[in-house]
Recover the amino acids of this structure.
């Protein structure tokens, strides 16, 4: 399986280990942490969009 992982240009770590990476494969969105690439989360575009919209609206700002 050939997956092209992408990460944000806003990654602050010089080694690139302080970021999330995303890929699309077989209609799913895949996410992983660059410093732990063996753990991959599978989701859909709709679920990821709902999460990102909530984050932009501050729904998670009060998490301890």
């Amino acid at each position: 399986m050939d997956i092209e992982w992408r990460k944000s240009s806003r990654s602050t770590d010089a080694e690139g280990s302080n970021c999330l990476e995303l890929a699309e494969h077989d209609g799913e969105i895949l996410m992983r942490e660059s410093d732990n690439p063996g753990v991959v989360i599978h989701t859909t575009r709709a679920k990821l969009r709902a999460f990102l919209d909530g984050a932009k609206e501050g729904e998670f700002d009060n998490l301890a």
Remarks:
- Helices lie at 45-56.
- Residues 17-64 form one domain.
- The chain has one domain: 17-64.
- The mean pLDDT is 88.
